[in-house]
């Protein structure tokens, strides 16, 4: 494409080194879509005759057909998807040599990438909505199941399992906003920025922007070919999403272990061991957690690439897509498989509850009852603390205590207090907005469905 200025052909080893076809070929459809809009605009503005424009457009459709029918194999020696398509077009229709009028690969790459990304991110939104739905459904299934809630991995207070699932609904619905933000960052159309300075042709940038479904053309041609922050917005979303996934996986892996054992994973989502017959391993969860590093790594990769680059386009930018694709593919597969797993995960109610009876997670409930009886909270805290100390010394778990034991150590313990000293009451009485009380969880599930439906 640039033989005019050169006395030597590009060395084979250099062609191999500089090609990006293996990474950008997947954008062929988006690239052709961009070229069709460009050539329509060239025809409309009279830069090309309308006859020339329609012939080129027809040729582009033909190239697309050939690709879709597997009849066209691109060549690495033509560097990238853009040059492969243009070269094939010109073989089919010699007027194809006019397609690149008023365009550079620099604005073309950015346009093609944004079109392709837009499609992928829209489909991620569908997958993420499914995941959100899975958490709401799990929450409905498990609202009455009580599990120990943990801080510092120490039993803290009993919670509704429904409340636990809703905590992920909140985290992932924030990720949804971040995904939407990343999509909004793709709204401006780069086409017409040229190599860096715009064009001497009277391009109608408004027209190509509209044809391609952008909201407006980019405002500065230098920034247009130099910037990749629209990719960074995706990377940040993806990293945060995977960190949420990873933490979720750690919980489920832990609760699936024999020591906790209150989560029941479907057999179909687990694998066995080639050696140990008893094993049922939570591989899907471990792999999802394990993929998190790659996604974060891809974000860091692009940040470092961009860090020292001068305005405007530099060939370093060709390295922007490999990690991006890897990250999108990973996030997509994780969204799908975790949603399917959450749909089937069950909780062993008895085991979860027995965990509570073995610990002292109702201690706060006693202290708060004493406060209602007029004892200052700090004093109540100390009274209950001493009592728990006594229980531990005497190897008595909460479930093993007799009423007399409690009354002996807690001065104001009466029958009303005895009545509220159960995991169910403990949960039910945490009826503050956002708390684990059953009524609150029910309310949040209802609102959750509404919020899910109103996501655009
Ligand atoms: N293959 C290149 C890329 O994907 C095309 C851009 C080439 N631009 C240039 N000035 N060499 O970024």
In summary, what is this structure?
This protein has 456 residues and is mainly alpha-helical. The chain contains 19 helices and six strands. The protein has helices at 12-18, 21-24, 28-44, 50-68, 81-92, 105-142, 161-184, 205-211, 221-226, 229-255, 283-307, 322-344, 349-358, 363-372, 377-393, 403-409, 415-420, 423-428, 438-453; strands spanning 146-151, 154-160, 188-189, 216-217, 263-264, 346-347.
Which kinds of small molecule does this entry bind, naming each only once?
Answer: arginine
Oligomer state of the chains in this structure? single chain
Main beta sheet, described?
A: 2 strands, antiparallel
Radius of gyration, in Å, reads 31 Å
% residues in beta strands: under 5%
N-to-C order of helices and strands: HHHHHHEEHEHEHHEHHEHHHHHHH
Q: Which structural class do the helices and strands define? A: mainly alpha
Number of helices: 19
Q: What is the approximate shape? A: elongated
**Model regions low in confidence, pLDDT < 50 over at least 5 residues:** none
Q: How many angstroms does the end-to-end distance come to?
A: 44 Å
Average pLDDT score: 96
Give descriptors for this structure.
456 residues, mainly alpha, two-stranded antiparallel ribbon, 19 helices, 6 strands, 62% helix, 5% strand
Question: What does this molecule look like?
Answer:
By secondary structure, this protein is mainly α. It is built from 19 helices and six strands. The protein has helices at residues 12-18, 21-24, 28-44, 50-68, 81-92, 105-142, 161-184, 205-211, 221-226, 229-255, 283-307, 322-344, 349-358, 363-372, 377-393, 403-409, 415-420, 423-428, 438-453; strands at 146-151, 154-160, 188-189, 216-217, 263-264, 346-347. A two-stranded antiparallel ribbon has the order 1-2. A two-stranded parallel sheet has the order 3-4. Helix 3 packs across helix 8 (205-211) and helix 10 (229-255) runs parallel beside helix 12 (322-344). The protein is elongated. The two termini are 44 Å apart. It binds arginine (ARG).
